[in-house]
Design brief:
Blueprint lengths: L14 H11 L10 H6 L5 H24 L1 H6 L3 H36 L14 H19 L3 H31 L11 H30 L5 H18 L14 H20 L8 H5 L4
Helix pairs in contact: 1-5, 1-8, 3-5, 3-6, 3-7, 5-8, 6-7, 6-9, 7-8, 7-9, 7-10, 8-10
């Protein structure tokens, strides 16, 4: 008589367990990134470029602070242990992202302000944020907090749609894509290069790809089991898109230095969102493997 092996505590075949392991294997430390070249290159930015980089970093830094704070309700309500394992890595990674942007402001932006004879600023100053940006993150916070009041399939879908599909999948990933392209020497050889920023953003974008993939997988599961209609996702993201569009910094300001154009960012965001919605809602489509989600072949 053969004996059946008793089940183990962790399902190592679960998609979200693979996401968790990928996060563990791809660990990076924001304080290991060399910022010396960035400090030197700040002098090469004209006034418009310097103002733009300050605003972008303030927006990204505040966004990472907010999502690190707002993710906690999801960690409370998730049922599967493998999902909980993954969320611990996401919370940790959001904290690392916030740490990176804070360090960059302290060690690169502040010295540049001093060298320019400019008044020292804080990434938390209200001058950097529009009403639409504040509203977007307030809605995200409410959507996540609602899970603690009523943990329904529809509320979960709305939470994933706010957090993973919109704030991370559209706003953050589009912004990081644009900023990486702007200051990578391969894109604009004649423009100032910020290798430390590009290195940090590359690591963050890889993490965010994994986070977005998790949200997509959970949404596809809700749609496939018919607990949620795909229209809920479309409507939720559609309501947030005007706030996202108003929150993305204008890259078309007058400057003598080469810069990425806003229409390229719009095309990138539109294309990525369309692909993700198809992968979630079309039964024959599948969520990309974690290595594809975190690869930066854009």
């Amino acid at each position: 008589m053969s004996k059946t092996e008793p089940p183990m505590h962790i399902d190592t075949d679960a998609r979200t367990f693979r996401y968790y392991r990928h996060a563990v294997e791809k660990h990076w430390d924001p304080h290991d990134i060399d910022l010396a070249a960035d400090r030197a290159a700040m002098a090469d930015l004209d006034d418009v470029g310097f103002e733009g980089i300050r605003r972008a970093l303030a927006l990204f830094g505040a966004g990472e602070d907010a999502v690190a704070e707002d993710l906690a309700p999801l960690a409370v309500v998730l049922d599967d242990f493998e999902d909980q394992l993954f969320i611990t890595t996401q919370l940790y990674e959001e904290a690392k992202h916030a740490d990176f942007f804070d360090r960059y402001w302290r060690e690169v932006i502040r010295p540049a302000e001093d060298n320019r004879g400019a008044e020292r600023t804080s990434p938390a100053d209200e001058q950097w944020f529009s009403e639409e940006y504040d509203e977007l993150f307030e809605r995200n916070e409410r959507a996540m907090a609602r899970l603690l009041e009523a943990d329904t399939p529809e509320n979960r879908a709305k939470a994933y749609s706010h957090y993973h599909m919109t704030v991370e999948g559209i706003l953050a990933q589009t912004g990081y894509y644009g900023l990486t392209r702007q200051f990578d020497e391969d894109t604009y050889p004649d423009a100032p290069h910020l290798p430390g920023l590009v290195d940090g953003l590359t690591q963050i974008r890889s993490d965010e790809g994994r986070h977005v993939g998790f949200g997509m997988a959970k949404l596809k599961e809700l749609v496939e089991t018919e607990r949620v209609d795909s229209a809920v996702i479309e409507e939720t993201v559609g309501e947030l898109l005007p706030l996202v569009q108003a929150s993305i910094p204008d890259t078309d300001a007058e400057t003598d230095q080469p810069s990425i154009e806003s229409n390229e960012l719009v095309e990138y965001a539109t294309s990525k969102h369309g692909q993700r919605m198809q992968q979630i809602t079309v039964a024959s489509e599948s969520i990309p493997d974690v290595d594809e989600l975190t690869a930066l072949g854009d």
